[in-house]
Amino acid sequence: MLPLYLLNAVKGETVVVELKNAGIINGTLENCDSYMNVTLTSAYASLSMDEPFHKIDRIYIRGTTIKFFKMGNEFIEKFKEQQQREKDNHSNYRNNNRQYNNHRQNKFNNQRRGNGNYNQNNNGNNRWGNNSREGIDTKN
């Protein structure tokens, strides 16, 4: 899955695609899918070694015909930063979810033990809620 994440990170950037039939296409990456089919815009293509380059406004390249992609090192750094941000966001989500679940479990355990909202006031009377009405005798 790593190559697909990298390709998604460099959408809108210029890449060079070398094909299995020795063709070379240079253009701006517009889109890619899970099969690594890509769409390039403002492309220059040479479909064989001895053919000159031709300008193509938009070209769709099937993933099975691609040998490899070439791109600058700055895109690799951009990709690493994006991966780190996603990892941090996922980690924060997991921590927040874990805290929420711990809070719910503690609340459930307190209710099972009788430590929930059921309190005993200073007079020894049991009642629901907090101790804001202390001193009121609720025994019959």
Automatic annotation (TrEMBL):
The keyword Ribonucleoprotein applies. Gene3D superfamilies: 2.30.30.100. Residues 2-75 form the Sm domain. It comes from the Eukaryota. The keyword Nucleus applies. Residues 92-133 have a biased composition (Low complexity). InterPro entries: LSm4/Sm_D1/D3 (IPR027141), LSM_dom_sf (IPR010920), Sm (IPR047575), Sm_dom_euk/arc (IPR001163). One of its GO terms (biological process) is RNA processing. Residues 80-91 have a biased composition (Basic and acidic residues). GO terms for cellular component: spliceosomal snRNP complex. Residues 80-140 are annotated as: Disordered. It is found in: Nucleus. GO terms for molecular function: RNA binding. Keywords: Nucleus, Ribonucleoprotein. SMART domains: Sm. This is Sm domain-containing protein.
